[in-house]
User: Fold these one by one.
Assistant:
Number 1:
Amino acid sequence: MTRWKLILEWDGAPFMGWQRQDHGPSVQGALEQAVLKMTGETVTAHASGRTDAGVHALAMPVHLDLDKALDGHRLAEGLNALLRPNPVAVLSAEPVADDWHARFSCLGRRYLYRIANRRAPLTLDKGRAWRIAKPLDAAAMQQGAAHLVGHHDFTTFRSVNCQSDSPVKTLDHLEVERVGEEIHIHAAARSFLHHQVRSMVGCLSLVGLGQWLPDDMRKSLEARDRAALGLNAPAEGLYFAGALYDTPTA
Amino acid sequence: MTRWKLILEWDGAPFMGWQRQDHGPSVQGALEQAVLKMTGETVTAHASGRTDAGVHALAMPVHLDLDKALDGHRLAEGLNALLRPNPVAVLSAEPVADDWHARFSCLGRRYLYRIANRRAPLTLDKGRAWRIAKPLDAAAMQQGAAHLVGHHDFTTFRSVNCQSDSPVKTLDHLEVERVGEEIHIHAAARSFLHHQVRSMVGCLSLVGLGQWLPDDMRKSLEARDRAALGLNAPAEGLYFAGALYDTPTA
């Protein structure tokens, strides 16, 4: 048996999310089907993070075990051919140690959230960013974001469906950057609560619009109450951007 | 009557090109329909450049004449609402002088060509770039590109369907830039021949792959023969990036 680490990229639009579902297409399901077609083996693929419906991935680490002996290049090429026409690509495949785990070995996760700050509807970036028509103040958003960095109880920014044992997390990084007509929000932590990034971005958008003061981010956090949430940003602007491991390879 | 200058952005994938067609959707047709719905006026829209099927636009100047008195903001918003679900957006609308012409007043046009230089199929950028799996040498491509800049007979890089009076054009700028896993090719000229950018990019890709030497670009140009063309790059990587005018507004 060989344990394989795959790095996946996908367009989240047609999927119910990463996790296999009975009622609709999932990235996990598409990948496991491609593996079955290629190798005849029924596997369970594990991802670093379980993204929601509509969320994209730029570089999602995934592991799975295969009995069949293969080389990484052939595995990636074969899966890419069989994944068509699903918008999922295997960027790389490499063997790792048997105890390496895409989720449990992960030491850090990065997300990118893209806001298109313009009046006109999106064409080329439709489904790739959240459009906000009114001008956003990125500097105010950055001030608000600074209140969330650190070790906090993030109950306010947590979905009611969150399965995490504790609402306490350490947010290592939350940065708001203007890039032309876009606002990019970069978030990094060892792990995130369900909907945490989208909830933080939703509130930051209110700060950007001037409906909230930057300090309202602190008040909202300290309320430790989902009712203190301003807004949950839509999935289409969210990208799983990358994950960090101590010793990624065998 | 007011002459309006609109700046349009579009995703070229669903269109037969800019120009109105009997046998399929066009950007011009979609825009003229939206204008008719909004104002009751049947207009002819003129674009700075007539792009082919599948070619995208980031900022295409277009003009049209309207009897109805409107303000620019309302015109843009109204057209955007009526253009849905076509992936076409009016980025801005401003009144211009009656003799201003999107095509004939244009002093310069810029194109961007995006090559995704990676093995894995495209997901988020599917239909937005030309994927070339083998590594491209951007420096060699830039050397080859330099041979085309200037005043030349571009017969080699001209479609057999080109309606231009003369194959002689002045290419002001042709630059090859590596941006992460992408190669961007920037081209600027007063005007281009039909398929000129795609023909130049196709040949440059052969240089990047090592199948042509940079100097083969010169030989191909000097042949002044369509048969000396190496390859025509696909439409999906091409973007009309912008146009230059002397006095854009009234």
Number 2:
Amino acid sequence: MLHAVIPAGGSGTRLWPLSRATNPKFLHPLTGTAETLIQATVARLAPVAALGDTYVVTGVAHAPGIARQLPDLPDSNILIEPSPRDSCAAIGLAAAVIAQRDPEAVMGSFAADHLVRDGARFVEVLRDAEAGARRGLLMTVGITPTHPETGYGYLQCGKTVDGPIRTVDEFKEKPSLDVATEYVRSGRYLWNASMFVWRVDVFLKELRRQQPELHDGLIRIAAAWDTADRDRVLGEIWPTLPKISVDYAVMEGAAAAGLVATVPGDFGWNDVGDFHTLGDVLPADDAGNVIVGDSATLDGGKPEVLLHDSAGTVVVPQSGRLVAALGMRDVIVVDTPDAVLVCPRDRAQDVKKLVDELKERGDSRI
Amino acid sequence: MLHAVIPAGGSGTRLWPLSRATNPKFLHPLTGTAETLIQATVARLAPVAALGDTYVVTGVAHAPGIARQLPDLPDSNILIEPSPRDSCAAIGLAAAVIAQRDPEAVMGSFAADHLVRDGARFVEVLRDAEAGARRGLLMTVGITPTHPETGYGYLQCGKTVDGPIRTVDEFKEKPSLDVATEYVRSGRYLWNASMFVWRVDVFLKELRRQQPELHDGLIRIAAAWDTADRDRVLGEIWPTLPKISVDYAVMEGAAAAGLVATVPGDFGWNDVGDFHTLGDVLPADDAGNVIVGDSATLDGGKPEVLLHDSAGTVVVPQSGRLVAALGMRDVIVVDTPDAVLVCPRDRAQDVKKLVDELKERGDSRI
């Protein structure tokens, strides 16, 4: 069994106007059921991590929403960062707090806002990763690429360690399309989905080696975590911690030292980065139309969505109003209480440009 | 000078969800300014008809809205039909009431929900029509066709009477595309826009000849109109009146009798039948985008409409929410407090199918 850590941050600007700085995507039911993404993440991890061993790391803004959406998660397992200090501080805090409670623990870290189609296969892969972690490796779960995606980093795999476990020789930044195509063709690369499984003692040792200041700060915070001093120590030390990603701070150096390995994940992973992607992963009607969210149900006989001669649309009805599309192909329609978006699916990536434009204008609806 | 009659009826289902049974298109600001269509209609007629000689004929549902939008129109000039009895009863009621007040009057009848681009030219054409009416002709203002439209009836013109006035030999039903193309090619046909100008005595005489029952009922109602008996007589007689259009009841027979003539109208007429048409007639930005209605203005620096890399769109922001379009071409987006519509401009005619579908489902949002 694992200790599960779920970093919950990032607003998902490509999912505007649904996802907002104040209402990020992991709090939304983008799963094809009434479950929100973070609820689905916790449910997916239940076979490998008891709820008492499941942690969410988040900022002050979203902690109340998370607490309400996960009523059975112990209060003390919601780790609230006083301010954003990037992923190494977030994940490192969880590792240090868990080590304080169980020095032998194996922890896995999984984003709050990803979707997995095949939950059983996901659990199998995690058990393989756990086996690697128990051997003292910093394990990643890489995603078997389905196309030459330029929006993700890649893991360059090396020799086989045991069974499906292979070493990771290098972490690669987001590539150009040519490079990504070559990566996929070679069969040696996996998508870096920021899923990690490791013994907390192994991770903390590597953190101490590469980022001693960050390590020492986190250890001092963790020592105070289950005491009356938590707030004071956290408030004192947290703002001084280096702001750095876990890949850059620890994983790249650990890979160079031969400490990182991976198991390939082929469980239908999706990072729900934009509405087009969301449309690909959720169940569609016969014409390929996807209606997102639990409000798509009939409300006293009144449809929330009326599609007439339309195909391939992604409709997100989130205001209770009727959304009607007539003769539309491959278009996204997102309806929220204060903003509506219409955009072709192949422009879904550019939604963040709209958010940038609104931000420039000082518009609060972002 | 004329007496102006404005029949205000019909909900405009192709303008759903903006236009509703309870909130028809003539009450909406679809003019490119803050004016509603009926306000623009009254303003357009001001050079030829005093406000005291201007009448609106409407049903019980819309009378309050009309009264509020036209605060200077005398109460007694809003003629309220107890129930819909088609256009001959509506226009005939106005003719009979006007004849009661001024037997020599020339009246013109103009729909409440049409747009005219060149108001000065419109007035010139009306003066020509008035001249024909004073000679004892039932005048129509036909619209010089700009394309072989199959959605309108046509007037078949005959010999020249005087100046621009020509006889109308026949009223033609909505034609097929082939027939419409031949009509336009021949130069002998005008669109029938249901604009009429006539002496009330001439019209009522022709009504008596062709529809004696309707004529007698309307005369009895008109006699009671400015008395304490109005409600009683109206309530008694109105429900018994034949339900028939003025074209079918009077104009076709009058044309056969050589009593109908026309002046061609070349003043940029548009019947605002659907959102595509509306987009053609209202001012557009450099990319051909049209924003309809007075709420398109900035509200404290917050845009109501945000168009990014979009062209040829028709956006109707009527809920106060932000409407954002990214990468859209030639599409209609209509945003109202309880429904939003997305549809390509070339499918604008089919919006009524959505309304039919909602009606079948018993949905009240129509």
